[in-house]
Amino acid sequence: MAKLNVNGAVREHDAEPDTPLLWVLREQLGLTGSKYGCGVAQCGACTVHIDGTPVRSCVMPVSAVQPASKVVTIEGLSRDGSHPLQKAWLALDVPQCGYCQSGMIMAAAALLKAKPRPSDADIDEAMTNICRCGTYNRVRAAIKQAAGMPAARSASAHEVIHIERRTT
Ligand code: FES
Ligand code: FES
User: How far apart are CA 2 and CA 82, in angstroms?
Assistant: First the structure.
C-alpha cells in the first residue's frame, strides 16, 4: 500500500502509480469535493493544494506526490466551513450549480495565502478556473470580501462599465 498525507492524516491506497491523484482522492479516499471537469488541466474543478500550492489533480500522477507532501482538499480547508473564503462564498451566495466551486475556493485560498490583499490583476492571474454558470463576478467579490476589502472595489473596470451601461 502507498501512503498519502491528506488533510492532516496519513491515508493508504493501492492505486496504480500513474493514476491521477483526483481519482485516488475521490474513489479510494472518499473525498468527493474535488470534481472532474475536463481531465486535461484546463478547468480547475479538481484543484487541491500540495504543500500549499494549487495543483490540478486530474493530471497529477499519484506517484508524483511524495508521502511527506501535504495534500489539502476542500474537505480539509477548515474543520467546520469557517475559512474566510467559505464564509464569504455563503454570504454572497456565489455558487450556481456548484460544480466548479470547490476548485474555485481552493485556487482562491492559495491566492490569499500568497497575497492577502489581491488586486483585480492578481485575481485574474490566479483564478484561471472555468465556471460554466458564469459566477466570475461573485467569485471576485467573495475573494475581496474574504480579504477584508471593500466589495465595491470588487468589480473590474469592464464589469463597472457593463453595470453603468445597464443602469443608464
Ligand atoms: S478536471 Fe482537472 S483541470 Fe479540469
Ligand atoms: S457554479 Fe456551475 S460551473 Fe461554476
Answer: 32
pTM of the model: 0.90
**Does residue 99's CB lie within 6 angstroms of at least one atom of ligand 1?**
no
Residue 64: phi, psi to the nearest 5?
-85, -10
What's the gap in Å between 98 CA and the centre of ligand 2?
Answer: 5
Lookup result for grid cell 479510494: 28
Pair 127, 146: CB distance under 8 Å: no
Q: How confident is the model at residue 151 (pLDDT cuts 50, 70, 90)?
A: low
36-88 residue pLDDT tens? 999 999 999 999 999 999 999 999 999 999 999 999 999 999 999 999 999 99
Q: Which three cell numbers stand for residue 39?
A: 481531465
Ligand nearest to the CA of 102: 2
- The alpha carbon of 91 and the centre of ligand 1 are apart by a number of angstroms equal to 27
Domains by residue range for the chain, with CATH: 2-77 (3.10.20.30), 84-146 (1.10.150.120)
